[in-house]
DNA sequence: AAAGCGGGGTA
DNA sequence: TACCCAGCTTT
């Protein structure tokens, strides 16, 4: 009973409808400079990495900042990792920035890839990004499969549980081989501005006459929500040595916030309390523990980190906070001291 | 195949 | 609060 729309779909008419809408209503975005199907590869590449799991309005801000700091692939390849992470600060998923820099070093040596397969071989470039860059910059007929495409096709065909392979197969069939780059941009623009997750604007949709979910009357229920793992609590202690402007910072290793700097910290283990973890941390640093400044909690998609922030004293080198790439969590921890200093200052002012 | 990885917007 | 965002890598 499902299925048949796929067979019955008038693909040429659907292409005409969507590309006509795109030519009239498509978004004007800074990485869309140049001829259709022949965009500047570097600009498209940076945009596609930035936009992975990141909404366009946010990506726009970082795009300008990043291209100003690293105008071409050679500038990016030559930059220290810390500079690249600083430009990425606040954008999340920091492995993207580290992989991007590594990939730029490869491209600077071997040249810009000239095919889907060549792009796919670069670190940080998966099937989506390789399809996007090769269609937009090289004119290659590769269909992208992202969250927008998944939602649009789920509704178009009335499939509530679209698998990755299911989406890719339909996207491959629909892709207009005469305008692959424009087609990919059109589906994504439709998903971002019309065929939105919660309240789609079907009255403005060029695909409404073709859409199974629209015909069924409840398009907003497609696709079914993804099941997500529960958020885990991660308690930890951190020490602030120095002040809010110059502090002892450590480079975080591992996957969580890896590559960023942050206040020295230790996890609070199952069988211990915060003071015990503080003592272990101070022993490692050869630091003298001080009073509790407060707690900060930061929720990410899959982790809720609660940091107990203490003062400490130690003869360790401090660095300027403004030049370091920090997570939101560490910025909040530093604000504990900033707030405290300001309130002390306010009291001093009142006393005079 | 599933988990892990940021941070913020939206309803 | 729940869900999502121009996904990729590792397990």
Automatic annotation (TrEMBL):
Against PANTHER family, the record matches this protein to: ADENINE DNA GLYCOSYLASE
Q: Which reaction does it catalyse?
A: Hydrolyzes free adenine bases from 7,8-dihydro-8-oxoguanine:adenine mismatched double-stranded DNA, leaving an apurinic site
Asked if Iron-sulfur is a keyword of the record, the answer is yes
What keywords are assigned to this protein?
4Fe-4S, DNA damage, DNA repair, Glycosidase, Hydrolase, Iron, Iron-sulfur, Metal-binding
Protein name stated in the entry: Adenine DNA glycosylase
What Gene3D superfamilies would the database entry show?
A: Helix-hairpin-Helix base-excision DNA repair enzymes (C-terminal), Hypothetical protein, domain 2, Nucleoside Triphosphate Pyrophosphohydrolase
User: For the HhH-GPD domain, which residue ranges apply?
Assistant: 50-193
Give a Pfam family name. HHH
Gene behind the chain: mutY
Q: Which cofactor does it need?
A: [4Fe-4S] cluster
**Enzyme Commission code:** 3.2.2.31
Which species does the entry assign this protein to?
A: Deinococcus rufus
Q: Which family does it belong to?
A: Belongs to the Nth/MutY family.
Tell me one GO molecular function of this protein.
purine-specific mismatch base pair DNA N-glycosylase activity
């Amino acid at each position: 009973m499902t299925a048949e729309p796929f067979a019955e779909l008038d693909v040429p008419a659907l292409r005409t409808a969507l590309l006509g809408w795109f030519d009239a209503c498509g978004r004007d975005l800074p990485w869309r400079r140049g001829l259709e199907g022949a965009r500047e590869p570097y600009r498209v590449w940076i945009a596609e990495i930035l936009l992975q799991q990141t909404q366009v309005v946010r990506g726009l801000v970082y795009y300008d900042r990043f291209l100003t700091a690293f105008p071409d692939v050679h500038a990016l390849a030559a930059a220290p990792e810390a500079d690249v992470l600083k430009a990425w600060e606040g954008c999340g998923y920091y492995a993207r920035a580290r992989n991007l820099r590594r990939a730029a070093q490869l491209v600077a040596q071997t040249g810009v890839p000239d095919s889907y397969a060549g792009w796919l071989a670069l670190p940080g470039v998966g099937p989506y990004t390789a399809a996007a860059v090769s269609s937009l910059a090289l004119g290659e007929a590769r269909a992208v499969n992202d969250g927008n495409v998944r939602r649009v096709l789920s509704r178009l065909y009335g499939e509530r549980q679209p698998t990755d392979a299911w989406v890719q197969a339909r996207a491959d069939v629909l892709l207009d081989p005469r305008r692959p780059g424009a087609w990919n941009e059109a589906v994504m623009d439709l998903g971002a501005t019309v065929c939105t997750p919660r309240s789609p604007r079907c009255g403005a949709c060029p695909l409404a006459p073709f859409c199974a979910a629209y015909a069924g009357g409840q398009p907003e229920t497609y696709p079914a929500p993804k099941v997500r793992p529960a958020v885990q609590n991660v308690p930890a202690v951190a020490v602030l040595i120095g002040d809010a402007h110059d502090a002892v910072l450590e480079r975080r290793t591992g996957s969580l916030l890896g590559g960023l700097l942050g206040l020295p910290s230790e996890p609070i283990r199952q069988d211990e309390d915060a003071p015990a973890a503080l003592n272990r941390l101070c022993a490692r640093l050869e630091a003298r523990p001080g009073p509790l400044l407060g707690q900060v909690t930061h929720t990410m998609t899959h982790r809720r980190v609660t940091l107990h922030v203490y003062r400490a004293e130690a003869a360790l080198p401090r660095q300027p906070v403004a030049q370091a790439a920090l997570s939101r969590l560490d910025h909040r921890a530093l604000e504990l001291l900033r707030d405290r200093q300001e309130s002390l200052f306010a009291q001093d002012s009142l006393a005079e």
